[in-house]
Q: What sequence folds into this?
């Protein structure tokens, strides 16, 4: 990945902003501040873009940078007299850090795949992930149960295709680690 | 820590993949192992399902944040040239029939950019099946080969192949286009190919009924005639492009570390042995050297098509990329006095067969950057 190409940097930003701000929010519990910190993370990434060779490398780098910035912010808040809250120990642990990464990455991958589906199919898959039955989905969307069945089947098939491409990447990075 | 992060990124991919219900036994085992490795993980998985759905409708648009980002951190984005272009457009441009715009600019700063560097091509070389080489002059019409089975003739700067139904298979011709040259040919199946400068194409003098295969190094624009039974394949240094009948551009120069294929009409499939992806019109595939992925992106096809109209067209492109294309074309080197100049973005449209000073003056008009020429090198500074 050549970040020297502004187009690619922008694409990367657009694809990952939500993930990074979501990650920051899990530390800061303040979505507005989380977005500001995410902007800071991307600016740091922008400044260091030439050293980061692959997308995964860049993402790993960002999570580390985001965590450090968030903890800095929490410390600043902690020493302000009006906030009496201590930073919970758990939040500073590596486990918490890794769990947040898992969560944000999984959400990003799931949403990327689902967003690639046609509108109606997308709605059906979303409802079915929430464990709604075919009948319930048919009622919510005001379509026949048979169309729900067909669209759902096609939707899952398409999802499998989209996610299969991800698998190839997974295999390769698996070999490298 | 990097390794642990990388593992989690992979676990996250497995979780996403399980939505499709399609994990292999091995993947299932990996995911289960992770779930059991900590009592909090099953709950984490539940949260992921919930949040994936809830945040789906979250209207936080990355696009808005990007605008803020560009503004707050002064990231070079605006196409500086375009502003000036618009200012002078009324006076200085003429619109041609095809709708393409040429921009003529008076040569200023004569002290800094004096000598004229105008591209002049040498001749196109055709190598016949028997190894004989023929130089093709652009202007004359001539018949290169005519026997009972095959005619090769040159007509209005285009090479045309025509065959009777019986041609011994396995005879190949090669055409080599020199720097600054361009050449068109029409193969026996009616397929039209326009080759860009510094390009080599190898092709059979006549195609078989079952398949049509050619080999390309460099850049070519293909208009493939439709034949359902005989797929047309362009072989490249990394993979191949397979089509039935369609228009597309392939850029596969050896000095560019990627092969870029842009589809104009119809449908094509890019295969590189590891992946196979289908492109729809307006999409571009990028295959980087040594990487298994085929990247697909949506593009402005006019950028890929510009050379066909004798143009350079850069849209919101960094100075670094613009000057690297110019340096390849005009055989000159650029030296940056300040590294950060490389990241300035410009939109430029200009005639590529004109002297280089035109485009450089156009860029320096913006006041963002200046050029000073010294022999075969040009200093870039501000």
A:
């Amino acid at each position: 990945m050549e970040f020297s190409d502004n187009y690619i940097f922008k694409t990367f930003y657009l694809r990952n902003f939500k993930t990074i701000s979501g990650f920051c929010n899990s530390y800061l519990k303040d979505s507005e501040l989380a977005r500001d910190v995410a902007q800071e993370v991307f600016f740091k990434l922008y400044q260091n873009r030439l050293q980061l060779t692959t997308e995964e490398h860049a993402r790993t780098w960002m999570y580390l940078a985001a965590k450090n910035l968030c903890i800095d912010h929490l410390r600043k808040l902690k020493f302000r007299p009006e906030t009496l809250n201590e930073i919970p120990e758990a939040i500073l642990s590596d486990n918490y850090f890794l769990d947040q990464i898992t969560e944000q990455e999984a959400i990003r991958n799931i949403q990327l795949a689902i967003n690639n589906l046609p509108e109606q199919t997308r709605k059906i898959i979303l409802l079915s992930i929430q464990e709604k039955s075919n009948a319930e989905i048919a009622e919510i969307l005001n379509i026949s149960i048979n169309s729900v069945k067909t669209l759902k089947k096609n939707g899952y098939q398409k999802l499998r295709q989209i996610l299969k491409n991800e698998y190839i990447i997974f295999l390769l990075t698996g070999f490298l680690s | 820590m990097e390794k642990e992060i990388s593992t989690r990124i992979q676990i996250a991919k497995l979780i996403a993949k399980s939505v499709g219900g399609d994990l292999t036994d091995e993947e299932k085992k990996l995911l289960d192992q992770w779930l059991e490795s900590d009592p909090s993980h099953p709950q984490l998985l539940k949260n992921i399902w919930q949040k994936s759905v809830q945040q789906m409708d979250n209207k936080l648009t990355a696009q808005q944040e990007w605008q803020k980002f560009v503004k707050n951190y002064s990231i070079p984005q605006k196409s500086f040239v375009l502003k000036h272009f618009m200012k002078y457009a009324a006076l200085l441009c003429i619109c041609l029939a095809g709708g393409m715009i040429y921009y003529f600019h008076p040569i200023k700063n004569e002290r800094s950019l004096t000598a004229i560097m105008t591209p002049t091509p040498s001749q196109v070389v055709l190598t016949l099946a028997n190894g004989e080489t023929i130089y093709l002059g652009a202007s004359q019409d001539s018949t290169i080969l005519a026997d009972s089975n095959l005619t090769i003739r040159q007509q209005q700067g285009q090479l045309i192949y025509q065959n009777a139904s019986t041609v011994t298979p396995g005879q190949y011709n090669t055409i080599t286009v020199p720097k600054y040259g361009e050449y068109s040919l029409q193969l026996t199946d009616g397929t039209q190919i326009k080759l860009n400068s510094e390009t080599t194409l190898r092709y059979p003098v006549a195609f078989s009924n079952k398949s049509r295969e050619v080999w390309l190094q460099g850049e070519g624009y293909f208009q493939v005639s439709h034949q359902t039974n005989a797929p047309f394949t362009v072989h490249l240094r990394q993979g191949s492009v397979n089509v039935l009948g369609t228009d597309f551009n392939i850029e596969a120069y050896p000095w560019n570390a990627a092969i870029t294929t842009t589809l104009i009409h119809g449908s094509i499939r890019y295969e590189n042995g590891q992946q196979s992806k289908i492109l729809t019109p307006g999409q571009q595939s990028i295959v980087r050297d040594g990487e298994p992925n085929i990247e697909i992106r949506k593009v402005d096809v006019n950028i890929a098509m510009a050379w066909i109209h004798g143009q350079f067209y850069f849209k919101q492109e960094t100075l670094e990329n613009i000057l690297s294309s110019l340096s390849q074309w005009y055989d000159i080197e650029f030296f940056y006095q300040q590294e950060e100049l490389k990241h300035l973005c410009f939109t430029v449209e200009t005639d590529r067969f004109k002297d280089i000073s035109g485009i450089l003056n156009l860029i320096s008009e913006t006041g963002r950057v200046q050029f000073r020429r010294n022999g075969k090198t040009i200093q870039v500074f501000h």
Q: What stands out?
A: Chain A touches chain B through 62 residues (CB under 8 Å).
